[in-house]
Specification:
The structure is a homodimer. By secondary structure, chain A is α/β, with parallel strands linked by helices. Chain A folds into two domains: 171 residues, Rossmann fold, CATH 3.40.50.1970; 202 residues, Up-down Bundle (Dehydroquinate synthase-like, alpha domain), CATH 1.20.1090.10. The first copy, chain A, has 15 helices and eight strands. In chain A, the strands form two sheets. The first copy, chain A, has a six-stranded parallel β-sheet, with helices on both faces. In chain A, helix 10 packs across helix 14. Chain A starts with a strand and ends with a helix. Strand 1 of chain A pairs antiparallel with strand 1 of chain B.
């Protein structure tokens, strides 16, 4: 086990009606004027946004709004938010939505007190040392941003989609999780969210660090829960218990508890970020394509962890590691397929992906050699993209 | 799944040399003068206390000492600590030790800013709404107090051993966890710690709340880790990797993650607290006796959860719930026995326990009906104590 530091100060309020704690939690943080960040129409149409704003009004919390955050959020909206926050002397942010909304709120939160350009943090030119407090009303269990210190933003100039990871500053102060808010998610979005949360675990599970049994076991437990509960939410979208299990799994998948004490990987995410930056696909759907491709490459180059996963999570009893890992991948693809997720570039709607471009951008953004589990160069990542054809 | 609020703000610094972060963490909290709380001789003899005090000196942190905390800590030491803290204008506490030391530090931390008697909190007459910050250097993985908001203190007058649980105020600000510090624990103490951490999970696992698959799976993962790693630390006390797995398991067992979304039980703990209050036995050893007795009673009255545990954690395939639960208990007893833990009052060194007295004190402290999983009255708890004869 490697040495580690772990701190998850986020206060989670989970259950029916959780969103109505927004004002009380903001008050407890001493915030009197906040920016409410949200996405497209669904939070408005469902009445959620109205309910939250009424809650703020009832407690006398002044608010300005920043709506219209798109999936795969980009830098112009962040800059707009930073400007408004500075002009209006905003003290904190409340994100009402999924990962794109939360990540935008976090980027604004980091940018407001910083004197340079907010992208400096994403470009690795500066470190976040201060941020406005962020609270969350979660509507999509997927990105895990409600409990993580991460934020993924795309710089439109050059389509650089980069994930910034902080240990502390970008973790939300509170996250309000009401599973009922996820009843109306379209099936494709529910399924993509499930692939995303599983990916967050796989990225931590494919680790070169030995003897981290406790973290493996916790990760396997969350994965088995997702695999068990996912068919229930697909079959009956208003199954509260299954939605609740999926929602909390999504948080645990990415708040760090599945990664303590070991080096992580993140290759599948890096490779998918290039796909969604260039082709604008849904992140989770892209991951459903890239994860089996990544694992297939690993089954032939470093099969140990894939075999362990296959035996522990998918009940594979093959004694040979490569055979076990491959059987696990078959089971994973079958599971993804059962949720209606794409398994190839073609099923993702990309007939002829420009693999050279994807590989070029990947290594431009992430360096010559990538991967925590197994070192990958241009020829390797190109091979992995081709496994997804 | 029940609604829940969950917040674990403790910053964990885990690994070799972790204790040398004490001064930096205290500084980061803005503390310039602290009380260092410790137990008997081992922290002194091993040189740990000296190393920590040197670390504080090097950073210019002024400190007073409160040593001599005994196992099953009592109120006089807490009162002494509160007096010293007030007189010396102490700003925070650093506990160097195991559960007894940490719990004493927490009780002092709650008592200093309170105008009444600190026992009011434990007696349920007042709620903690303020406390001095507490940091921890952990030497015994067992009580889980390094990550919990709990503190167990015994009031000498009447031998009332009571656990106070707070959601926030008594959670340590930071916990420094170096597995090397546990190499020199005597085997009996290592084993008792293992029983204690397993108990913290069982108390949350035996729950009447249905459909909390995610929390079950995480709890089972931590249990399976402990069962796998425990024989390694017994066989080779300086096995760093096994000690590290056990140490982090002990924290996860009790920081709340194994209890989210469900009603908890705590009967085995309540029943053991009466034994250790009256007979002064080691808490973990007492739990090794009470847990199988509790589970045996449940196998005959409410076998579902014990059967689930047996199947998931001990690989029992019995179709009948009672039979499965009983087979799981046999496996658990065999595991405890292999660690050299006692399984009966007699093996605990209590030839003729005064069961009437234990039952009387239990219900005096905890009410007429106890238990979150299954309601227990005097006749039931007496029967459970008798199952431990």
């Amino acid at each position: 086990m490697d040495n580690f530091t772990y701190c998850t100060p986020t206060k989670y309020v989970f259950g029916r009606g959780a969103e109505l704690n927004a004002a009380a939690e903001l008050k407890a943080l001493g915030l009197g004027k906040v920016m409410v960040v949200y996405g497209g129409g669904s939070a408005v149409r469902s009445g959620l946004l109205g309910r939250v704003l009424e809650n703020l009004d009832a407690f006398g919390i002044v608010h300005v709004e920043l709506g219209g955050i798109e999936p795969n959020p980009t830098d112009p909206k962040v800059r707009e938010g930073i400007d408004v926050c500075r002009r209006e002397h905003i003290e904190g942010l409340l994100a009402v939505g999924g990962g794109s909304v939360i990540d935008t709120a976090k980027a604004i939160a980091a940018g407001v007190p910083y004197h340079g350009d907010f992208w400096d943090f994403w470009a690795g030119k500066a470190t976040v040392e201060k941020a406005l407090p962020v609270g969350v009303v979660l509507t999509i269990p997927a990105a895990g941003s409600e409990g993580s210190g991460n934020s993924v933003i795309t710089l439109l100039d050059g389509l650089h989609k980069i994930s910034l990871r902080t240990d502390y500053w970008l973790r939300p102060k509170f996250a309000l999780l009401n599973p009922e808010l996820t009843f109306t998610l379209p099936p494709a979005q529910t399924a993509a969210g499930i692939a995303d949360m599983m990916a967050h675990i796989f990225e931590r599970y494919f680790s070169p660090t030995q003897d981290v049994e406790i973290t493996d076991r916790v990760a396997e437990g969350v994965l088995m829960t997702i695999i068990e509960e996912a068919p229930k939410v697909m079959a009956r979208p208003d199954d509260y218990q299954a939605r609740a299990n999926i929602m909390w799994s999504g948080t645990l998948a990415h708040n760090g508890i599945c990664g303590t004490g070991r080096k992580e990987d993140w290759v599948s995410h890096f490779m998918e970020h290039e796909i969604s930056a260039v082709y604008g696909v849904t992140h989770g759907a892209g991951l459903a394509v890239m994860l089996p491709a990544f694992m297939t490459f690993m089954a032939h180059h470093a099969p140990a962890k894939g075999a362990h996963l296959a035996r522990r999570v998918f009940g594979i009893s093959e004694p040979d590691d490569t055979a076990a890992a491959l059987a696990g991948i078959t089971a994973l693809k079958s599971f993804f397929g059962s949720l209606g997720l794409p398994l190839t570039f073609k099923e993702l709607g990309i007939e002829n992906p420009d693999i050279d471009l994807l590989v070029k951008k990947l290594h431009e953004n992430k360096g010559e050699v990538i991967g925590g589990y197994y070192p990958l160069r241009v020829a390797d990542t190109a091979a992995i993209y081709r496994l997804a054809l």
